[in-house]
Design goal:
The chain contains 17 helices and 24 strands. With about 650 residues, it is of the alpha+beta class. The strands form 6 sheets. Strands 17-18-19-20-21-22-23-24 form an 8-stranded antiparallel beta barrel. Strands 3-2-1-16-15-14-13 form a 7-stranded antiparallel sheet, sandwiched between helices.
């Protein structure tokens, strides 16, 4: 009897636990503080331990109220100061753009700005309509504010113009937008390519139309009405105790290395610092019709315009609202924006359907921490029971084969030496197809399997979070870009165009390796010939021309090795910032390397005729002539690579 009672009691507790859990999950519309506390304590603490995250902060809002906020880790490890959700500021990177776009919509609401007017009307300089690489015509239509807010103005992107570690590297917004106008590489409104410059331009228009510096306008018209007293776009903002900016760290070799304060060049695109509490107020405004605690910053109808979709490459995809990215997570529509500096990472997610918002920020360099936590939040409170399934239909393998290849980000530069980042900066998606007809998509270091759901449209069979930074990456749709290349489109403000074979990572890396091997072996061979010649005495010496040709080869090969040695010596990745130092400490010229292009042209102008003369006059033996010809072709190939990738611009 006692055993039976004990058994029934245990079963009862188990049933009660399961029912409580199911009620908690099923009643997602009634999120309780205690369940949030347990969920985030468990999730965040495990993530901080797993990824060695030194500090983080979280806030959750629902139905116009802050239902959860908390800091994790230490804002200052050395002084043992913990993170506080109310007073610890984090650099939120590109999540700052949401405030910039909100300021833009205030001017739209005031009648000072039209979303579909040529932005040249609001500027004191002109953005030309000339395309850098002509299509069927040399010019394109004007850029509008809608294009800027949906990341479709068609600008190229300069990654080296984002971060600085010294205030000396900053410049006024007016000077930045005028002095760093990027080339237009796509017709406006046709290709999604994320643009920091576009946001900087919008911030400058806010300055001009309001008559206030951008940071001052935002403080007066957004931060003050919303009581966001610990938020600022000013770099190194003046803070009042106990407010404190969380120090950024990266875990290296068993300990936390502290990074310097990161200055962001285009202020409206990413320089904001804020707390979890302040960002909670901002989320409430966007979920509650534009007002919070008696302060209104936008009308509800204005927010409705801002939150609806304004651009997508295909109805199957989440696209862009005005500033917000669109995505579907666990069958819920989500408006979101992430943001990263070199050391801080942030995500802001709004679920209008259930009137809920989540803000997560941290330092430590894990760019996908916030998306992992958000996905786990969705899986816990809004689980999706249906499993994603599908099998390739007849002929899918043949249809998929035309999409195989390397796809490179359209967020790229084509006119500067930053062009090489399209294959070095992780902006590559590789597409393959297996024998069953599944599309194998390698992106962000992982390979996912996609199945065709209609011609040119593929569904990811993986559930939950993926490695994509700009959306769920659950569907991809193949289109054609304005240059006639196959274009991979997905959720959010990012597209990828299929690279011709000569600009792929594989071809470029292989060509460089081959050129280096040819150079090293040639130099060694010619040096051996010269050394051995010192020990040979010949009464009848041949013409001096073959000897000159060898010396030209030795000079060219030595120059090439100096070139690669110079590149390797300046291209190291800093362990804290995970970027080459040139990305945040500009180098004014490369004295050792600046003379290389001219010298390479001199050598090729000598090597080419010497190669022809060697065959005409019969210098050396046949094998030696073939070798000299191969070396000449290698030098020509290197010159082509240098100029194709703008490496000495």
């Amino acid at each position: 009897m006692f055993k039976r009672i004990k058994y029934l009691t245990s079963v009862g507790f188990l049933i009660a636990f399961v029912l409580a859990l199911s009620v908690n999950v099923a009643s997602a519309k009634n999120i309780q503080d205690i369940s949030l506390e347990a969920f985030f304590d468990n999730t965040m603490n495990s993530k901080l331990e797993k990824y060695h995250i030194p500090n983080a902060t979280v806030s959750v809002v629902k139905d116009g109220k802050i239902v959860y906020k908390k800091g994790f880790g230490f804002a200052d490890i050395e002084n043992n100061i913990p993170v506080d959700a109310d007073t610890t500021l984090f650099r939120i990177g590109s999540t700052s753009k949401l405030i910039t776009w909100t300021a833009v919509m205030q001017l739209v609401e005031a009648g000072k700005l039209d979303l579909n007017t040529d932005i040249n009307s609001y500027l004191d300089f002109e953005i030309p309509q000339q395309l850098e690489k002509t299509l069927k015509k040399n010019t394109t239509g004007p850029i509008t504010m809608t294009h800027l807010m949906t990341h479709t103005p068609g600008f190229e992107d300069y990654p080296d113009m984002l971060f600085r570690l010294s205030e000396d590297g900053l410049m006024p917004l007016r000077e930045y937008v005028k002095g760093h106008l990027p080339a237009r590489i796509f017709p406006a409104g046709e290709v999604a390519a994320y643009s920091n410059y576009g946001t900087a331009l919008a911030g400058y228009i806010v300055e001009r139309l309001s008559g206030l510096p951008f940071s001052e306008y935002v403080e007066k018209n957004i931060f003050t009405p919303l009581y966001m007293n610990n938020s600022s776009f000013r770099q190194q903002p003046a803070l009042y105790p106990p407010a404190l900016i969380a120090k950024p760290y990266r875990f290296i070799n068993g300990s936390y290395a502290q990074g310097s304060f990161e200055y962001i060049l285009p202020e409206p695109a990413g320089s904001m610092s804020s707390t979890a509490s302040d960002m909670a107020y901002f989320m409430i405004v966007h979920l509650s019709g534009g007002a919070y605690s008696g302060g209104r910053i936008l009308k509800e109808e204005t927010l409705n315009v801002m939150h609806k979709g304004h651009f997508t490459h295909d109805p199957a995809l989440g696209g862009m609202a005005l500033g917000f990215m669109e995505g579907v997570f666990n069958d819920k529509g989500v408006l979101f924006h992430s943001g990263s500096t070199m050391l801080y990472n942030t995500g802001l997610y709004l679920l209008p359907e259930v009137n809920t918002g989540i803000f997560i920020s941290s330092s430590g360099g894990n760019h996908l921490l916030h998306s992992e936590v958000f996905q786990e939040f969705m899986d816990f409170y809004y689980p999706v029971k249906a499993q994603i399934m599908g099998t390739p239909s007849e002929g899918s393998q043949e249809r998929a084969k035309k999409f195989t290849g390397e796809y490179q980000m359209n967020r790229r530069s084509i006119t500067t030496d930053e062009k090489i980042n399209s294959i070095l900066g992780g902006g590559i998606i590789n597409i393959d197809v297996d024998e069953d007809g599944y599309l194998l998509v390698t992106h962000g270091g992982e390979t996912n399997k996609f199945v065709e759901i209609e011609p040119g449209v593929y569904q990811n069979l993986r559930e939950g979070r993926t490695q994509d930074y700009f959306g769920p990456f659950h569907k991809i749709v193949f289109k054609t870009d304005p240059f006639g290349r196959t274009m991979l489109t997905t959720d959010g403000p990012m597209t990828y165009s299929k690279a011709p074979f000569y600009s792929t990572m594989g071809f470029t890396a292989s060509a460089i390796v081959i050129i280096v091997l040819i150079t090293i072996s040639s130099l060694a061979y010619w040096i051996i010939i010269k050394i051995s010649g010192l020990f040979k005495r010949r009464k009848n010496k041949s013409s001096g021309l073959p000897d000159v040709a060898l010396w030209v080869g030795i000079g060219a090969s030595t120059t090439i090795l100096i070139l690669f040695a110079g590149i390797l010596s300046t291209g190291g990745i800093d362990p804290v910032y995970q970027l080459p130092t040139e990305a945040y400490i500009p180098v004014e010229g490369k004295p050792v390397l600046d003379f290389i292009p001219a010298l390479m042209w001199i050598f090729i102008c000598l090597l080419a005729p010497f190669t022809l003369i060697a065959w005409w006059k019969g210098f050396w033996g046949r094998v030696a002539r073939v070798h000299y010809s191969i070396f000449t072709l290698a030098v020509l190939g290197l010159i082509w690579i240098i100029y194709y990738w703008n490496l000495f611009d």
